[in-house]
Every structure is written in structure tokens, then in C-alpha cells.
Design brief:
Chain lengths: 222, 202
């Protein structure tokens, strides 16, 4: 069972490596969107510092959603998704592995690069760890919830837009907690509360989302 | 081994077939015949558990397949319409992943032999292969799946040349001789495979 999960993660990473442009696009999108705000607003350090957590989080959220529509669609088109569903591992395990691979490719890089972007906003260096940690805890939740939407909209015409409409409202709690943790930390109140809530969301998503994704995949593949 | 009882399939408000019952025993070959759109693929998808029938049930050794799930999946090889190979991976990588997902681990040499048997270059990305070679890369799975009792093959002969058709015939005959059961769909009469025929057009 674990072997099948590892196999899927390895396969998706290998595929990402062979199609580096797809990964680079999402990452560049994040960098560019987050860089547009300082350029548009101009050099107003106080304002920039105040909006930094929210803007970086929104950019991360959009960028993570960018690659979601491809999460299952390519496997669905070439028939490999059917083979995964007919594999020796429970479909929930397959779903969790796919979501994990998505996070490794499109969530983890965001968390790592975010402190660099925070430089543009003149965010105090003490807040970098909080920002990175909030993204580390939050982006896997985005991948898990997003995968449910991707599975539900599989094979639907115009699925990309539908996916955004379906998923973005569900991202709101993650966004509030994620950006809130940095805000709190910058106000000197410590962001631990929000980070702990994010961690709780992550645990909840990891336990429940795979089964929801599995159920959605079963419906879509019919 | 496999038993279908009173299967009915309704797609887009159209009844494709109803009250379809048959059983399949070890060593048997069943060819599903019928015109385009008569529900051959749907029947195969019902038999492998991807599609739920509108009525009726499929039983594997007396137990319903929707209760068995993965335990049943391990007993079957299903090759669908699409070749189920990733364009960016090589044939060898594709085969290894397909086997691992099915829960079988093979050393590389066995996989290489299977690909050689089907005449597929193992280390070229599948994207660079022709349509027929892609099919062959997918069919290489059969060459290593001798121990899996039930094969469900959707149009295994599509896009294959005479040589490859003979190879598939041989693989099927070999599997039946081993005591495995095969269900397959095809339009054309097959040469070497004497099979029971199930006509879907009523």
C-alpha cells in the first residue's frame, strides 16, 4: 500500500522533472504577482509592510490553484487514472499520494521562496520564519482541498473556471489564518494561535480529504 | 470464477443492455462482440468495477466485486481504450509503474524481456513511438501478468500489425492454457483464439 503511494509520488515528481516548464510557470506566476504590488503601490514602506502577508498569501493561493486543473486531467486523458483506481492500493491512498505530489511540486517551492519575496515588502526579518511556516502548514491544505475540486470537475467542459469557483471559497479559512499569523506576529502578539489552527486544519485535511477525493474520482470516472 | 447476474447498463437515458447474465470459468475466453455503441466498453468497465451497473451485480468467486474492491483489483488486469502510458516516460518506466501500482514487483530484467517480446524500444520516451508501438508498450503488461487470473481487454487488437496481433493471440492462448480467464472486445474475428462469443446487439 505504501509502495503504491511512493510509486505515485515518484512518478509525478519524475513527470514534473521531465516537464519542468509547467512547474516553472506556476512558480514564476507567484513571483510576478507578488512583485506587481510593490511596483504598483510605490515606495511606501509602512503600507507595503502592512499588506505583505495578505498579498503573498493570495499570490500563493492563486499559484497553487493554477496547476490544479492538470492534477488529474492528464492521467484521466491517457487512461493511467483508471489503472491507478484499479491498483492494489485503496483509492484513498492513491488520492493522498497525488495530492502530496502536487504539494511537493507546487506548494513547497512557494513556502521556500516566500521570504525572498518578503524582502520587496520590507518585512522585518524576524517575520520570515513565521511566513514560511504558515505557508508550509497552509499549502498542503490547499493541495488537499484543491484535489477534491479537481476530482469533481474532471471531464467537465470549462472545468477550469468551475474549479476556481468551487475551491476559492473553501480556501478562505486557510488564507485568513495564514495571513493572520504573520499579522499577529508583526503586531508582537505572536502568531502561534493561528499557526496551531493551521496545523489542525492540515491534520483534518490529511485525514478527511483523501476519502473525499477518492469518492469524487469514482464518480467522475464513470 | 466470474459471474454476471442480470446486468443492466443505462448511459444517457439509453439502455445499452439489460438482463445480461453469464459466467466465466477458468481457462475460458469470452469475446464480447457488437456494433459501435452497443456497450462493449461499458460492459468491460462494469466487469472491472470502474462503472456501477444500473441493475444486477458482478460476482468474483461468489463475492460481489463492489465489496471486494482492491482484493478484486489484484485479481484482474484491465487494459482500456487508452493505452495508459505516460508520454514523457519511457516504455520501461511505464511498465514498471503499472506493475507496482498493481502490487507486483519485478526485477528490471523481466520487464526488459517483456518489452523485447513485444518489440518495444525500452528506453525511448513513449511520445516518440508510433500509435501501434504505444499499444504494444501497454500490452507488455500482459507478458508479465501470467499469475493474474482474469484479463479484461478492451480492443486489444486495435492499431496492431499482423505480427503483433499474432503475439497477442499467443499471449491470450497461453493464459487460457494456464487456467486464466480472458474477456475481450473486438470488432474483427480473431484467428487463433477460439472464444465463446457474447453478442451485445439485441
Amino acid at each position: 500500500m505504501l509502495d503504491a503511494a511512493l510509486c505515485i509520488v515518484r512518478r509525478d515528481l519524475l513527470l514534473a522533472l521531465r516537464r519542468r516548464s509547467d512547474v516553472a510557470t506556476a512558480l514564476l506566476f507567484f513571483v510576478i504577482v507578488a512583485s506587481l504590488f510593490p511596483l504598483g503601490i510605490g515606495a511606501e514602506p509602512n503600507l507595503l509592510r502592512a499588506i505583505a502577508p495578505g498579498v503573498i498569501w493570495v499570490a500563493a493561493l492563486l499559484s497553487s490553484m493554477l496547476s490544479l486543473s492538470r492534477l488529474f486531467a492528464a492521467d484521466y486523458a491517457d487512461g493511467t487514472l483508471e489503472q491507478m483506481l484499479l491498483g492494489a492500493a485503496p483509492v484513498g491512498v492513491v488520492a493522498a499520494a497525488k495530492a502530496l505530489a502536487h504539494w511537493l511540486v507546487s506548494g513547497l517551492p512557494l513556502a521556500l521562496i516566500a521570504p525572498v519575496l518578503a524582502l520587496q515588502y520590507d518585512l522585518p526579518a524576524a517575520l520570515y520564519p513565521v511566513l514560511a511556516l504558515s505557508l508550509l502548514l497552509g499549502t498542503p491544505v490547499l493541495s488537499m482541498i484543491g484535489a477534491i475540486g479537481a476530482a469533481l470537475t474532471l471531464g467537465v467542459r470549462g472545468g477550469g473556471i468551475l474549479l476556481s469557483l468551487l475551491i476559492l471559497p473553501l480556501y478562505v479559512p486557510v488564507l485568513i489564518l495564514g495571513a493572520g499569523s504573520v499579522d499577529m506576529a508583526s503586531a508582537g502578539m505572536g502568531g502561534e494561535g493561528q499557526l496551531l489552527l493551521l496545523a489542525a486544519l492540515l491534520v483534518g485535511a490529511c485525514t478527511l480529504a483523501p476519502w473525499a477525493i477518492a469518492a469524487a474520482l469514482r464518480i467522475s470516472i464513470e | 470464477m466470474l459471474e454476471a447476474a442480470g446486468l443492466e447498463c443505462v448511459r444517457q437515458q439509453r439502455t445499452l443492455f439489460s438482463a445480461l447474465s453469464f459466467s466465466l470459468s477458468a481457462g475460458e475466453r469470452l469475446r464480447i462482440a457488437g456494433a459501435n455503441g452497443s456497450g462493449k466498453t461499458s460492459l468491460l468497465r462494469i466487469l472491472c468495477g470502474l462503472l456501477a451497473p444500473s441493475a444486477g451485480e458482478v460476482r468474483w468467486r461468489g463475492e460481489r466485486i463492489d465489496f471486494l474492491r482492491e482484493d478484486y483489483s489484484r485479481q484482474i488486469v484491465y487494459l482500456g481504450h487508452a493505452p495508459a502510458v505516460k508520454d514523457d516516460l519511457t516504455a520501461a518506466e511505464n511498465l514498471e509503474i503499472a506493475c507496482r501500482l498493481a502490487g507486483c514487483l519485478f526485477p528490471g530484467s523481466i520487464l526488459q524481456k517483456a518489452l523485447a517480446q513485444l518489440g518495444v524500444p525500452p528506453d525511448v520516451p513513449v511520445r516518440k513511438l508510433s500509435q501501434g508501438q504505444r499499444r504494444r508498450a501497454a500490452l507488455a503488461r500482459l507478458a508479465v501478468s501470467g499469475s493474474v487470473p482474469l484479463w479484461l481487454l478492451d480492443e486489444p487488437y486495435a492499431a496492431l500489425d499482423v505480427h503483433a496481433t499474432a503475439l497477442v493471440d499467443a499471449l491470450i492462448a497461453e493464459h487460457a492454457a494456464r487456467g486464466g480467464a480472458i474477456v475481450f472486445t473486438t470488432h474483427q474475428e480473431t484467428g487463433a483464439a477460439p472464444a465463446r462469443v457474447l453478442e451485445l446487439d439485441a
